[in-house]
Structure formats: structure tokens, C-alpha cells
Recover the amino acids of this structure.
């Protein structure tokens, strides 16, 4: 299955499951996707489906599905959890929600650390920055986790 076709099927499944009271996969081998809107609903979904894959930008999961041909029966997306979409400026620096995309984070990060502008421009492509989250970059443990040097500094 081509990457575009797989993502199109996944997108269709997400749209169909997002509003369903009881989500059922509309197509064989397409995961059930839960999209909770707040932390309480997220907690309930994780309790109900402890083996679910927790997702945000799907930049790694898309590759699992299309390149590694993994089967993921249930995914829980953090994209609509308001509490995970926020960036707060604190005395210590930034409090960054796990579902904040790299594009959403950039103005906050660059306001505090303008010397990171070149790093930000080189961090993945623009479409990936629009989808990828700092939380996913850290939790995913990717060997190309470009955020680690900045977080360690």
C-alpha cells in the first residue's frame, strides 16, 4: 500500500470514528481511533484500551503502518485534548503540552531563544513540523530525535 493511500484510509477512518459513540473500524485492517476532547476522556480511553497506541502527529505511526506494515487495532489521539495543546510561559521557561506541534511551539521558543532560529528551520520539513509534536519526538525515542540537543542545553 502506498503511503498516500494508507494515510487517506487512516484519515477516513479517523473522520468516521471521531463522532461515533462506539467506534468500529470501517475498513478491515484500519484501526479504531478515539479522539478524546479533554484529559478526563483521555484517561477513560486509556483505561478502557490499555494496549492502545497513543498518537498525536502520526509522523512515526504513519511509517509503522505503511512501511513496516504493522497492525494497530486501537489508537487514541491527543490532537483534540485542549490541555495538551497549550504552551505556558513560566518563571522557569516554557510548559509545553505534549500535543503542541513544532510549528505551534516555534514562536514561543524563538521568543525566548532567538539563537534557535536556524535549528528550527532545519528541524524536519515544514509539513512534518506542522504535524509532529515535541512530546512525540521525545517519547518516540527516534534515533533522529532532533529536539534532544536543544532540550539538554
Amino acid at each position: 500500500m502506498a503511503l498516500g493511500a494508507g494515510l487517506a484510509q487512516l484519515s477516513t477512518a479517523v473522520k468516521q470514528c471521531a463522532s461515533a459513540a462506539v467506534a468500529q473500524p470501517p475498513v478491515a485492517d484500519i484501526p479504531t481511533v478515539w479522539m478524546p476532547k479533554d484529559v478526563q476522556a483521555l484517561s477513560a480511553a486509556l483505561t478502557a484500551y490499555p494496549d492502545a497506541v497513543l498518537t498525536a502527529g502520526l509522523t512515526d505511526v504513519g511509517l509503522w503502518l505503511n512501511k513496516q506494515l504493522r497492525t494497530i487495532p486501537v489508537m487514541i489521539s491527543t490532537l483534540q485534548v485542549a490541555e495538551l495543546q497549550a504552551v505556558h510561559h513560566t518563571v522557569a521557561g516554557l510548559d509545553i503540552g505534549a500535543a503542541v506541534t513544532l510549528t505551534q511551539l516555534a514562536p514561543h521558543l524563538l521568543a525566548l531563544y532567538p539563537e534557535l532560529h536556524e535549528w528550527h528551520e532545519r528541524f524536519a520539513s515544514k509539513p512534518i513540523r506542522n504535524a509532529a509534536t515535541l512530546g512525540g519526538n521525545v517519547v518516540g525515542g527516534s534515533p533522529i530525535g532532533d529536539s534532544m540537543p536543544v532540550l539538554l542545553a
Q: What stands out?
A: The helical segments are 3-18, 39-48, 61-66, 102-112, 117-122, 126-131, 134-139, 148-152. Confidence is low (pLDDT under 50) at residues 1-6, 16-23. The two ends are 41 Å apart (CA to CA). The chain is about 45% helix and 10% strand.
